[in-house]
Amino acid sequence: MAIEIVLEEVENLNRVFDQCVKDYHIANSINAEQPAFNNEKLLPFYSKCWVDSVQWHLEDEIRRPEIDNAYALELKRRIDASNQVRTNQVEGLDNLFLERFKSTKTKDSARINTESPAWAIDRLSILALKLYHMKQEAERSEAGKDHMELCHFKWNILKEQRRDLTLAIAQLLEDLQEGNRVMKVYRQMKMYNDPKLNPSLYSSKDKG
Q1: What pLDDT, on a 0 to 100 scale, did the predictor assign at position 185?
Q2: Which of 88, 89, 109, 152 has the most CB atoms within 10 Å of its CB?
Q3: How confident is the model at residue 198 (pLDDT cuts 50, 70, 90)?
């Protein structure tokens, strides 16, 4: 598989993520419903970025210094639930890659990567949000010249980071297709949401 083909595939994911972030900011509400997306193949990636976009703003909202305690607790519960959804979505995306490379014969010399394709793509989704919001800050004139210049500098670094990560993911997919890397997925080990694994949950249940 030519690297140019895989690179375009990953660049297309960046376009999907950018579109999702823009779509979120049309309503710009943590309670907004995910809009329709007419590409069935790319819908799981769009949905992943939508959850990331909502959670980004939940994290912003919960940091308001004047926030009511009850509302903060409600947001914390939503963030916990969102983290579980995000993990489930990433594992769903990795299932797609497992299916894609299931017939690939792995070479004896193949190496294991530090993360799966979907977890690397998860970082691309977050980078789309970072780029959008850092650009906003770089253009926020009321914040002052120094603030704008610093944020513009950071925005350029984020663009470089996305270029590098995009290439790295493309190279990983190429290696997986050629059998030079092992397609291996470790399933989630989150414990805090699991009533069978979180002592605060199962102890409370036992006492009840």
Answers
A1: 87
A2: 89
A3: confident
Per residue in 177-197, pLDDT (tens digit) is 999 999 988 877 677 777 887
Residues 88-132: tens digit of each pLDDT:
999 999 999 999 999 999 999 999 999 999 999 999 999 999 999
- With helix as H, strand as E and coil as C, how does the chain read? CCHHHHHHHHHHHHHHHHHHHHHHHHHCCCCCCCCCCCCCCCHHHHHHHHHHHHHHHHHHHCCCCCCCHHHHHHHHHHHHHHHHHHHHHHHHHHHHHHHHCCCCCCCCCCEECCCCHHHHHHHHHHHHHHHHHHHHHHCCHHHCHHHHHHHHHHHHHHHHHHHHHHHHHHHHHHHHHHCCEECCCCCCCCCCCCCCCCHHHHHHHHHC
Task: Tell me which residue has tokens 């769903």.
Answer: 92
